[in-house]
Design a protein that fits this description.
By secondary structure, the chain is of the alpha+beta class. The protein contains four helices and seven strands. The chain has one domain. Helices cover 37% and strands 34% of the residues.
Length: 137
Protein backbone atom coordinates (compact mmCIF):
# COMPACT_ATOMS: atom_id res chain seq x y z
CA UNK A 1 0.00 0.00 0.00
CA UNK A 2 1.39 3.42 -0.93
CA UNK A 3 1.80 6.27 1.54
CA UNK A 4 -0.98 8.22 -0.18
CA UNK A 5 -3.51 5.41 0.25
CA UNK A 6 -2.35 4.88 3.81
CA UNK A 7 -2.86 8.54 4.76
CA UNK A 8 -6.27 8.59 3.05
CA UNK A 9 -7.32 5.55 5.07
CA UNK A 10 -6.09 7.21 8.29
CA UNK A 11 -8.05 10.37 7.46
CA UNK A 12 -11.20 8.30 6.91
CA UNK A 13 -10.66 6.48 10.19
CA UNK A 14 -10.31 9.81 12.01
CA UNK A 15 -13.48 11.31 10.48
CA UNK A 16 -15.37 13.00 13.32
CA UNK A 17 -18.77 11.60 12.45
CA UNK A 18 -20.25 12.60 15.80
CA UNK A 19 -19.65 16.33 15.27
CA UNK A 20 -20.76 16.13 11.64
CA UNK A 21 -23.90 14.24 12.62
CA UNK A 22 -24.65 16.81 15.33
CA UNK A 23 -24.42 19.59 12.75
CA UNK A 24 -26.96 17.61 10.71
CA UNK A 25 -29.65 17.96 13.39
CA UNK A 26 -32.92 19.77 12.74
CA UNK A 27 -32.21 22.63 15.21
CA UNK A 28 -28.77 23.30 13.67
CA UNK A 29 -30.05 23.19 10.08
CA UNK A 30 -33.05 25.35 11.08
CA UNK A 31 -30.73 27.99 12.54
CA UNK A 32 -28.61 27.97 9.37
CA UNK A 33 -31.72 28.29 7.18
CA UNK A 34 -32.87 31.29 9.24
CA UNK A 35 -29.47 32.97 8.83
CA UNK A 36 -29.52 32.39 5.06
CA UNK A 37 -33.15 33.56 4.72
CA UNK A 38 -32.20 36.74 6.58
CA UNK A 39 -29.47 37.33 3.99
CA UNK A 40 -31.92 36.61 1.15
CA UNK A 41 -34.25 39.29 2.55
CA UNK A 42 -31.41 41.85 2.73
CA UNK A 43 -30.43 41.03 -0.84
CA UNK A 44 -34.01 41.21 -2.13
CA UNK A 45 -34.74 44.49 -0.34
CA UNK A 46 -31.53 45.88 -1.84
CA UNK A 47 -32.80 45.07 -5.34
CA UNK A 48 -36.03 47.06 -4.96
CA UNK A 49 -36.44 50.30 -6.94
CA UNK A 50 -36.06 53.48 -4.84
CA UNK A 51 -39.80 54.18 -4.81
CA UNK A 52 -40.86 50.52 -4.31
CA UNK A 53 -44.22 50.27 -2.53
CA UNK A 54 -43.26 46.96 -0.93
CA UNK A 55 -40.75 45.60 1.58
CA UNK A 56 -39.65 42.24 2.97
CA UNK A 57 -38.99 41.53 6.64
CA UNK A 58 -38.40 38.67 9.04
CA UNK A 59 -39.82 38.12 12.52
CA UNK A 60 -39.57 35.31 15.03
CA UNK A 61 -42.82 33.45 15.28
CA UNK A 62 -44.06 30.82 17.73
CA UNK A 63 -41.52 28.00 17.30
CA UNK A 64 -40.09 29.41 14.10
CA UNK A 65 -39.80 32.52 11.97
CA UNK A 66 -41.91 34.28 9.39
CA UNK A 67 -40.94 36.15 6.24
CA UNK A 68 -43.28 39.01 5.36
CA UNK A 69 -44.04 40.86 2.17
CA UNK A 70 -45.68 44.15 3.01
CA UNK A 71 -47.11 46.32 0.25
CA UNK A 72 -49.81 49.01 0.15
CA UNK A 73 -52.81 46.77 -0.33
CA UNK A 74 -51.14 43.45 0.34
CA UNK A 75 -49.49 41.49 3.10
CA UNK A 76 -48.28 37.93 2.58
CA UNK A 77 -45.98 35.67 4.54
CA UNK A 78 -44.22 32.32 4.64
CA UNK A 79 -43.52 30.61 7.96
CA UNK A 80 -40.71 28.18 8.81
CA UNK A 81 -41.44 26.01 11.85
CA UNK A 82 -39.11 23.62 13.62
CA UNK A 83 -41.24 20.54 14.22
CA UNK A 84 -40.27 17.30 15.95
CA UNK A 85 -39.24 15.39 12.80
CA UNK A 86 -38.98 18.08 10.12
CA UNK A 87 -38.79 21.75 9.26
CA UNK A 88 -42.25 22.67 8.04
CA UNK A 89 -42.84 25.56 5.62
CA UNK A 90 -46.35 27.06 5.57
CA UNK A 91 -48.04 29.76 3.52
CA UNK A 92 -49.85 32.71 5.10
CA UNK A 93 -53.04 30.68 5.43
CA UNK A 94 -51.19 28.13 7.57
CA UNK A 95 -51.27 25.49 4.83
CA UNK A 96 -48.18 23.32 4.62
CA UNK A 97 -46.22 23.99 1.43
CA UNK A 98 -43.62 21.29 2.16
CA UNK A 99 -41.52 19.71 4.90
CA UNK A 100 -37.75 19.36 5.04
CA UNK A 101 -36.21 16.24 6.54
CA UNK A 102 -32.53 15.41 6.91
CA UNK A 103 -30.29 12.53 5.93
CA UNK A 104 -26.74 11.99 7.11
CA UNK A 105 -25.27 9.83 4.35
CA UNK A 106 -22.37 7.36 4.22
CA UNK A 107 -20.09 10.08 2.82
CA UNK A 108 -20.60 12.12 5.99
CA UNK A 109 -22.73 14.72 4.22
CA UNK A 110 -25.89 16.31 5.55
CA UNK A 111 -28.62 16.29 2.92
CA UNK A 112 -31.90 18.16 3.02
CA UNK A 113 -34.85 16.24 1.60
CA UNK A 114 -38.13 17.60 0.27
CA UNK A 115 -40.69 15.18 -1.15
CA UNK A 116 -38.05 12.46 -1.39
CA UNK A 117 -35.58 14.60 -3.34
CA UNK A 118 -32.23 15.93 -2.11
CA UNK A 119 -32.07 19.72 -1.98
CA UNK A 120 -29.41 22.30 -1.20
CA UNK A 121 -30.15 25.10 1.26
CA UNK A 122 -30.65 27.64 -1.54
CA UNK A 123 -33.14 25.33 -3.29
CA UNK A 124 -35.23 25.00 -0.11
CA UNK A 125 -35.17 28.78 0.33
CA UNK A 126 -36.20 29.31 -3.30
CA UNK A 127 -39.05 26.79 -2.97
CA UNK A 128 -40.32 28.64 0.11
CA UNK A 129 -39.76 32.27 -0.92
CA UNK A 130 -39.77 32.60 -4.71
CA UNK A 131 -43.50 33.33 -5.04
CA UNK A 132 -43.37 35.75 -2.11
CA UNK A 133 -40.28 37.63 -3.31
CA UNK A 134 -41.13 37.74 -7.00
CA UNK A 135 -44.90 38.19 -6.77
CA UNK A 136 -46.44 40.49 -9.37
CA UNK A 137 -46.99 43.78 -7.57
Amino acid sequence: MSDTNNSTEKAKAKFDWVSHRYSCSLPTVFKELRTEVEQDIKTRNGLRPNNAPYEFSLADDDGGFRVFLKAKELQMSVTFVLAEHAIVVRDDKGIEMFAVTLTFNDQGECKLNVNGEERDYWQVRRMALEDLMFHSY
